[in-house]
Structure formats: structure tokens, C-alpha cells
Design goal:
Length: 243
């Protein structure tokens, strides 16, 4: 696994310096795909291997990236909707999901790369004494080995996946469960992510919200998402946070 350039928008560092510090913070909730790791290449390989099983044409990395963020079930439905109307999507859904999961498990993390300053940002947050949770919509069976393999799991007190609770992001339930586990008020927690899923969940829970500009956000501009600011890296996010 290698570090890759984030492709940050122009003046991102300057814009981050203009943001107001977030005070009274005791914990962070951080997303995985599109925030700490660029996993789109993994999705691209697994999806197209699944499509080859059914003799469907491959999809581009850009198309698949725009489908990422709402969990595996939504991803497969979006992929199938390229070829089929809703009724046919459901007809093929179970077989397609099973094939995708089989292929994804075999290559999980093989093509994923850390975004710049992820490790240094997490290290700084840890040194500050912040409690740390990862909340992703990726199934736990995929998230845990991926975070172990990439050296991310050591920073987090808890890792919740899209199947950890009855509802996933953008529902606030996973964030509220972190609040309960940490015995903190939502206003003491900053949620950091790359999409409207993270922002909507954070806002509904009552947390502060920071977004990163380099992730997926369902193919939509992150600038249109409600948050307390856009930070170019997790290290910049750490610099904005004070206890």
C-alpha cells in the first residue's frame, strides 16, 4: 500500500487557515473510505470482476466512485441500475451482491492507498488525548482487516461498520452510540468525513462536522454540503481542534 497525492483543490491550505478553531472537543469520529483511504480502486476491481461473472460490461473507476458511500447494498443496486430497471435490479441483486462480496474479500486493501497526512493527523489527535472512533458504512468484516492491514486500527478505541447497528449513516444512530460509549455530549465530538452521509449524521446527532475535499461524496461537490469547514488533510483537522 502506498501514499498518493490527494489532488487538493487550489488554495485549500489557505482556506483551512481561515477556519475558526473548534474548542471544547474531547473526541473525533472519522470515516474510512474517501477520508482516510482511497479504496475506489478496490471497489473498481471487485465490481468489474463481479460484472464479468455475469457477462456485463465493465464500468469506469469514475462511475463506480460516484456510487460509493452508502454501503454495499446501495453500491450493488447502483451498479445494477446501469443495466436494468428497478424490478430487474432486485431480480439480480442477491446473486450480484454475493459475487461482489466474494471478489471484494479476496482483494480487500490490495489497491487502496492512504491519503496524505492521515497517519500524522491521527498521531497528533492521539497525542492530544482525543478519544477516537471510526464509523464507516463498510461492513465490519471488510473494515476491520483493511484497517489492520493499513495500520489504522491502532488509533481507534472503537470501529463501527454499516452492519453494526440497525441503521447506518446518514442516520445519526452510529454517532449517538459513540457518544454513549464515550459518555460525551455530541457537542464535544467532531465528525470528519468526505460526504453528505457524514455531515447529515453529524448534524442530526449534534456533533461538529469537518469535511475533506478529496473523497467521493457520491460524485457531488463537497462545497455544497453543510459543515463547519473543509480541511485539506486530517493533520489540518487536528490543528483546528482544541480540548
Amino acid at each position: 500500500m502506498t501514499l498518493r497525492a490527494a489532488g487538493l483543490p487550489p488554495h485549500a491550505e489557505e482556506q483551512a487557515r481561515e477556519l475558526k478553531p473548534l474548542t471544547g472537543i474531547a473526541a473525533v469520529i472519522i470515516d474510512l473510505d474517501g477520508t482516510m483511504l482511497d479504496t475506489a480502486p478496490d471497489f473498481h476491481v471487485a465490481i468489474n470482476r463481479m460484472r464479468a461473472d455475469f457477462e456485463w460490461a465493465p464500468l469506469s473507476l469514475q462511475t463506480i466512485s460516484s456510487f460509493v458511500g452508502k454501503g454495499s447494498e446501495n453500491l450493488i443496486r447502483r451498479v445494477l441500475s446501469v443495466d436494468y430497471a428497478d424490478a430487474k435490479v432486485e431480480l439480480h441483486f442477491d446473486a450480484a451482491l454475493a459475487a461482489y462480496q466474494r471478489h471484494y474479500l479476496s482483494i480487500n486493501g490490495h489497491y487502496a492507498t492512504l491519503y496524505p497526512d492521515v497517519i500524522t493527523g491521527l498521531q497528533q489527535m492521539q497525542e492530544m488525548g482525543l478519544r477516537m472512533a471510526c464509523v464507516t458504512n463498510k461492513p465490519v468484516a471488510f473494515a476491520l482487516p483493511l484497517m489492520e492491514a493499513t495500520g489504522l486500527s491502532r488509533f481507534f478505541e472503537v470501529i463501527y461498520g454499516g452492519d453494526s447497528f440497525s441503521r447506518k449513516k446518514p442516520d445519526p444512530l452510529p454517532f449517538l452510540e459513540v457518544c454513549r460509549l464515550f459518555n460525551l455530549q455530541p457537542a464535544q465530538i467532531v465528525a470528519i468525513g468526505d460526504s453528505s452521509n457524514d455531515s447529515e449524521a453529524g448534524r442530526a446527532a449534534g456533533c461538529k462536522v469537518l469535511n475533506v475535499p478529496y473523497g467521493y461524496n457520491h460524485g457531488q461537490p463537497i462545497q455544497n454540503v453543510d459543515s463547519d469547514g473543509i480541511v485539506p488533510t486530517l493533520l489540518c483537522a487536528a490543528n483546528l481542534i482544541s480540548l
